[in-house]
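User: Before I run my own analysis I want an independent prediction to cross-check against. Here's the chain; please return only the structure tokens and, at the end, one sentence I can use as a sanity check.
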Amino acid sequence: CDVSGSMERHARLLLRFAQALSRASGVRTESFVFGTRLTRVTHELRGRDPDLAIRRVSETVTDWSGGTRIGEALRRLEQRGARRTLHGGPVVVLISDGWDRGDPAVLGHQIRRLQRSCHRLIWLNPLVGTEDYAPLTRGLQAALPFVDDFLPARTLTNLAELALHLNALPGRR
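Assistant: Structure tokens:
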């Protein structure tokens, strides 16, 4: 989940969704947040109290509400042991508005590598569905050819629809 400045008004709701996923029985999750750095927050999101979980995440993350370098964050994920995280071909949900300050070529390269390592790559964007929105940023243009599903994440209804979408995905190949 992107926790940069442009995502600040959406990040807490989306992290609550990640926290709910981490509590779902039978679902193994790994959670990371990024701005200019990648931070693993799997342990911080565990537990019953979503407010406490979000507070723990915000205390752990040093670049909350800063810039965004999605390609660099994905590169760091790969360096930190993506084999372990991506073992078994998981569904990967990347949450960002796509306002990236990094090199679009790096983002395109890293998202392509990520897509090859997972069962399905879903990009949630809180701007999808807003009036006059089009994914025109250079980073999104580089990434979208490798994204399986580009879905809205603005409202609770969008997240409920995502849950249905996740449940309807066909089994792993």
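Sanity check: The chain has a mean pLDDT of 89.
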